[in-house]
Amino acid sequence: MQGLEISLYDIDFTRYGRTDVHRLKEINRIIFSEDRIINQYHHPDILVYLATYNEVPVGFKIGYGRRSKVYYSAKGGVLPAFRKKGIARKLLHLMMFDAYQLKYKLFSYDTFPNKHKGMLILGLNEGFKVTDAKWNELYQDYQIHLELDLNERFDKQ
Asked: Residue 82 falls within a domain, yes or no?
């Protein structure tokens, strides 16, 4: 699939809920080489997004409410052959808008820049602010926490 000539218009984006987390199992295993999608499923407002190309999963995002005003994007990824086509950005935009519609005020996520530098760059380009950075022993990388004020983002539009 290297050099695949597709555009964002060729990708279908679907939002699911808590009961559809199983839809992420295979793509999560391919991208992250692990079965764990998120640690716990008791969080409020779990949202699951799946990007597909010809009905084949090519990207995903999962998030949930952390506190009454903070929505957390827990995990997401795009298959290597489909990166740099705007899929991660579109998934991020969909989740941020839905979190805003659910009345969350802040949107946040963590990333590991030496492992996934694209997510740090995407966040900074989208107006996120770095609010914390610390060394993570488990991942042997810096864990960067980013936040965005959803009201600032969407009330301007």
From this structure: yes
CA separation for the pair 127, 125 (Å, rounded): 6
Q: Which two tokens stand for residue 141?
A: 């990388």
Residue 88 contacts residue 122 (beta carbons within 8 Å): yes
Q: In this model, does residue 2 exceed pLDDT 70?
A: no
Looking at residue 7, what is its pLDDT?
87
What's the rounded Cα separation, in Å, for the pair 86 and 149?
Answer: 22
Residue 80's φ and ψ, nearest 5 degrees, are: -50, -40
Give the predicted TM-score (pTM) of the model.
Answer: 0.91
Q: Number of structural domains, the chain?
A: 1
Q: Is 116 inside any structural domain? A: yes
Q: Which domain holds residue 24?
A: 8-155
1 occurs within a structural domain: no
Beta bridge partners of 48: 16, 62
- Better pLDDT: 117 or 96: 96
Contact of 93 with 107, CB cutoff 8 Å:
no
| The predicted structure's pLDDT at residue 3 | 57
Give CA–CA dist 43/124, Å, rounded: 27
Q: Is residue 3 part of a domain?
A: no
